[in-house]
Amino acid sequence: MSEKRNVTYMLRCSDGTLYTGWTNNIEKRLEAHNAGKGGKYTRARTPVELVYLEEYETKQEAMSREVQIKRLTRKEKEALMKKEEEI
After folding, report:
1. Which of 6, 17, 56, 73 would disulfide-bridge 61, Cβ 3.0–4.6 Å?
2. How much is the pTM?
3. How many CB atoms lie within 10 A of CB 22?
């Protein structure tokens, strides 16, 4: 059985807005978002593109980080994505 990964992620929606969430199966979650079955926010904003990802050992860590990222300003979120690209 494959090990589940707990991830916090950011999507860029078709209207240019950003969506932040967490999951333990990013591939399945992306499929759900793009099929209009993901978060209510993304349903009318498909297709979505994965633009940022952080991996954690526990669900609680991923959920906590989701809340932290959601509190950031758009500018701070863009800076976080840019910093990741530079690594």
Report:
1. 56
2. 0.89
3. 22
Alpha-carbon dihedral sign for residues 71, 8, 60, 27: positive
Kind plus residue range of the DSSP H or E element containing 28:
helix 26-34
The Cα–Cα gap between 59 and 35 comes to: 24
- C-alpha distances in angstroms, 86 versus 40, 51, 68, 80, 83? 32, 13, 22, 10, 5
Separation CA 44–CA 46 (nearest Å): 6
Using one digit for the tens of pLDDT, what is the confidence trace for 20-79? 999 999 999 999 999 999 889 999 999 999 999 999 999 999 999 999 999 999 999 999
Interatomic CA distance for residues 5 and 34, integer angstroms: 20
CA distance 35 to 38: 7
